[in-house]
# Entry
Amino acid sequence: MRRSPILERETTAKVVAERLREEIQSGILAPGTRLRQNDIAGRFRVSTTPVREAFAQLQAEGLIRVDPHRGAVVFHPTVSDLIQAYEIREVLESLAVRLATPNVTREIGRSLFDVIDRMDRTTDPRRWLRLNDGFHLQLYACADRPQLSMLITNLRDASAPYIHMFVSSTKPGDQSSAEHRQILDACLAGDVAAAQNAVQIHLRHASRELEQYLGREAEAETTGRTSRSPQGRRANGPNRQPRVVSSQ
# Structure
């Protein structure tokens, strides 16, 4: 029996959205990248209709923005966006770990400790991100609250592009690993308050690191624009190094 055109279109839109989502989260499509419907349709060999529907889905997830003049653009996070996302995540993930803690068995704990070990060993940012998400989402699944897990997943997906930007330049070190172990140790001990506190500390630390990273990136971008401007070139001269002012 042949599938209906509507079902085929919906399935195609879902596949296109999944592929673009993966490329955005992994950094292949960098923040600020313009997504042209015709180019995407040609690349995936589909019509523009499912591409337009995929764009709508990704916009709802916060991964792209649709600008009236530029069209669809990969979301470029600001420090304000980051802070808001982590504030919401802290509330939801603290609730999730509170509900999950009584259900974290020794078997689940062994599985999650293995995930942490693999995170410590990998040097691939994409793999680290997948393992990091796997650790948190597997833990929160113990809460047995599918809607809560879905909200957390969507927020984590929206955060993924700038987390990838960060881990690609600076691999998370021993502190991140220690924080994951503290969360899991508290859950296995049945200490709900300690588990919630460990999650909050972990998210606040990640938020501060990302906030500092985005601030440095924004400053570097501004400096680059200034040096490329006609005024900047005149001030520095065609072959002259930028002027350095020593502090007094």
Observations:
- The chain has two domains: 7-74, 79-221.
- The radius of gyration is 22 Å.
